[in-house]
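Escalated from tier 1: pyridoxal-5'-phosphate holo job.
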Amino acid sequence: MTIYADNAATTRMSDTAVAAMLPCMQEFYGNASSLHSTGQKAAEILQAARETVADCIGCLPQEITFTSGGSEADNQAIVSAARIGEKKGKKHIISTAFEHHAVLHTLEKLEKEGFDVELLPVGSIGTVTAEQVKAAIREDTCLVTIMYANNEIGSILPIPEIGKVCREAGVLFHTDAVQAAGHLHIDVKEQNIDMLSLSGHKFHGPKGVGVLYAKRGIRLTNIIEGGAQERGKRAGTENIPAIAGLAAALKEACEHIDENAAKVSALRDKLIAGLSQIPHSALNGDPVNRLPGNVNFCFEGIEGESLLLLLDAKGISASSGSACTSGSLDPSHVLLAIGRPHEVAHGSLRLSLCEENTEEEMDYILAETPKIVEYLRNMSPMWKDLVSGKRTFML
Ligand SMILES: *Cc1c(COP(=O)(O)O)cnc(C)c1O
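Tier 2 regenerated the structure:
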């Protein structure tokens, strides 16, 4: 059996997305900026995709900029808000300690330029409140950037409330909605969102394509310089196949959002209930306001990497947190942000599900994982110390 349970890292492309892409590669292959009819056909597909995406998130087509992915959209949103802010002498930015690195590393760069970046603590559940944001806003705040839902631990943040606080204070609000788009209802107008990032490959669309929504009137700063594509705000020949695939996948995901969420959260809850039975384990993230597909646990006394390898040998593709931190020895900044000690943070497992997963797969995961955890604990010096009382259990 092979089970794919790493949908927060990326998803399998849907038939709908592939079907939307194929004709763009060999039939409608024109350059959308060309004046001839082959180019104009591509321009039509581009416009249709822009309208589809706008419909899915409740904005105008001209408020959509296609990018190379969620990372680029995050970079462009944050840099744009910073440039708008500094013109007015405002250089204070509010964010959280558990954002994606596309946000955190962009903020670090701005910090070196003299911006004052304040990362709000996320507490043990991994969330921030609108009150926290309100209390942090200052006269010189130019941007609040807070993720819609966390990619590692699945917490869903109170975005409409945070947006309201920002709107009342006249501060730009950006949200990295890469984990939320296609999975949670998004309406940028109703939810008081000024800028939003999303990415095709997190909802069964293609990789290497994303969207930056920016409310009319917000002047975007170019990250990529060159031609006048995307109203001059994002140079480079539009990737029509990818854009068409993203739009088709997002539309399909949004049309089935409630039924998918119901199905996937039932699978999630089954896994959470089963894995909670493992002694000295703990669920990470908000137990209530949680992405339908996210399961994230810490198991004391083991290394997450070893757990992953042994799960993989049993045909289960999972993650220890984020695809971006695997390969580095540092524990996840997200788990540290919710207060997990280093030793505990190392023993993490993220299983991220989608509507293609089945109940039988959950049974299999629940049969295999406890055995592997026990096997690893039996060879772990740290576990020996815990059992003998040389170290004290933290979970
Ligand atoms: C995946 C992800 C990104 C990066 O998106 P890419 O399209 O892979 O660049 C950014 N933020 C979050 C929360 C993500 O999960």
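The chain has a mean pLDDT of 96.
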